[in-house]
Write a structure and sequence with these properties.
mainly alpha; 15 helices; 302 residues; 2 strands
Length: 302
């Protein structure tokens, strides 16, 4: 005789099989698109790695490009012992670190002012900061070049062909977007915190350093990663404003020194590109969660 509890349990749950089928189908499509993603985005780095392990003779033979018949680390040894390449790497590192420092100092103060110190036109100014980021650099470098020439003619200060001029140029790209991210993150902080701090007699500087910066640390890290990536991978500005070999940064230095006329040193070009991609890749690998959290907060609260 069936128990009352067992008698109340239906023989089958309507719709359960359909849900499992839908979930299985969704998983199949997920795997399908993940495979496409891997093929599309990881094939170029894999090809670069394979080519970097070949000699120039093997690359020029036209054999199977996806196989290394005589693997060698000669390209890596030549680049890592080359004073020119190390100069490019050093210039990129100095420029990126200083640009990140300048960007975060300006962006944090600007975002704090626009998100908490309400004044006439602050909302319009905040939107204008983001719209500035949307102006492509291909439209900016010509006016900037003319401005630098004008400054040199009137003051005698030569701003072109120096690596430090990039410290003036790169923040035009990094400050607007980082400020926008920080505005969104600062806006997500409850106003009760800063109101309580003001009642307790804290100044705006204390409120920024002791409340906003610690609470908004994920957003600050996200902005820092963005600024570093832009500074490290920027190509157009250093190509237009620097020419001497000792003033070049890594992306431009690799192209201008490893391509002679119609001769492409593909092995070292691929090696240099892989070595140049390593620092951002390492940073993203350790701080990806902060980067996603910071961008998400900026998108929903800005």
């Amino acid at each position: 005789m069936a128990t009352p509890a067992a008698a109340t349990v239906p023989a089958s749950r309507p719709g359960l099989g359909s849900m499992r089928s839908d979930r299985r189908r969704a998983l199949y499509w997920s795997y399908f698109f993940l495979v496409l993603f891997v093929i599309f985005f990881l094939t170029p780095p894999l090809y670069m790695l394979i080519t970097s392990l070949k000699t120039s003779a093997e690359i020029s033979t036209g054999t199977n490009p996806w196989w290394v018949f005589s693997p060698t680390l000669q390209n890596y040894k030549e680049l890592l012992t080359s004073p020119t390449y190390l100069t490019f790497f050093r210039n990129s590192a100095i420029v990126s670190v200083l640009v990140v420092t300048i960007t975060m100092a300006v962006s944090i103060l600007a975002a704090f002012s626009l998100s908490r110190m309400k004044f006439w036109g602050s909302a319009t100014l905040a939107t204008g900061v983001f719209l500035t980021y949307l102006i492509p650099e291909t439209l900016l470098f010509i006016p900037l070049f003319k401005i630098f020439v004008f400054v040199q003619e009137w003051t005698g200060i030569e701003l072109i062909n120096h690596w430090w001029v990039l410290l003036i140029l790169y923040p035009t790209l990094t400050v607007p977007f980082c400020t926008w991210i920080m505005i969104g993150y600062f806006s997500s902080i409850p106003k009760e915190l800063d109101e309580a701090a003001l009642i307790d007699g804290a100044s705006y500087t204390q409120m920024l350093t002791k409340i906003f910066i610690p609470v908004a640390l994920p957003g600050i890290i996200a902005a820092t990663i963005f600024a570093f990536t832009v500074s490290w991978a920027q190509f157009l500005y250093p190509l237009a404003f620097t020419t001497s070999a000792d003033q070049l940064v890594l992306p431009v230095g690799i192209i201008t020194t490893l391509i002679k006329g119609d001769v492409f040193n593909w092995g070292q070009i691929m090696t240099g590109a892989l070595l140049g991609a390593a620092p951002p890749l390492i940073i993203y690998a350790f701080l990806m969660d902060y980067y996603i959290a910071g961008l998400t907060a900026g998108a929903t609260k800005g």
